[in-house]
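User: I'm putting together notes for a lab meeting next week and I want to include a structural view of one of the chains we've been expressing. I don't have a solved structure, so I'd like a prediction I can at least talk through. The sequence is below, exactly as it appears in our construct file.
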Amino acid sequence: MHHRTWLDRAADGLNALLLLVIAAAMVVPFLYIFSVSFSSMEEYLSKDFILWPDRWVTDAYEYILANDKFVKSVLVTVLITALGTTLNLVFTSTMAYALAKPFFGQRVFLFMVLFTFLFSAGIIPTYLIVKATGLLNTVWALILPVLISPWNLIVFSQFFKSIPEELNEAALIDGAGEFTVFSRIIVPLSKPAFATFGLFYAVMHWNSYFSGILYLSNPNLWPIQVLLRQIVVVNDTSSLLTEQTLVEPPPAETIQMAAILLATVPILIVYPFLQKHFAKGVMIGSVKG
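Assistant: Thanks for the context. Below is the predicted structure for the 289-residue chain, given as structure tokens.
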């Protein structure tokens, strides 16, 4: 039996301290954002740093939700995230399933995938393509250019290769077609993969803002991150509402923190529902058995 020395205990204590410091560095900013968003104007102006408000107020949230611009932006983001993630999974999984099987010209398709993974067209050529196809000022401009991620496609394909080929052969012998095999056998066995890549794609769509700035000039189509940039980075809180319901609006900083919290919480709520499958899916493609 191994006896722990004082050096082992010191190393464990140092590791625990380091982990506590890292955890605090991650938790404290969220706690600060949460506390400031619920702080009153008097408390915010009188304190330099707030980790827990003395009096809880919802003025910032009332200011944000008084007009439908913020709510409309959230709904646009939900639409983009739901529709985009669904199409991402459909096209990525079907192409990955095809690439997982040997066929004539497979190396050519794999080369094309790897080429786009290593070399991208760039911002201006992509913008010209989006403009030429008539996608400007539509939600499709935020979905179609990122329909398939080369990295996710390759890892997805490796996962499909790990599924025993005997299952496919048995189903084909029984008269099932490729689509039936994919939908009835492969998809149910691939729930961890779909949950993992679905979460990756959903987070990508929810946090995407550069494409919205680039392709959307209509403020009514702005996703939440673009509106959040307008509020936080540009510091334009007045553009959030067309009618102010409060005689004296709350400080701009509390409005910014409330907007950040409202934009962050929805995507955090999704994770617990996918955690069971996500824990299995993080090792996708690492081991082939």
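A couple of points you could mention at the meeting. The CA atoms of residues 37 and 257 lie 5 Å apart. The chain has 13 helices and no strands.

User: Perfect, that's what I needed.
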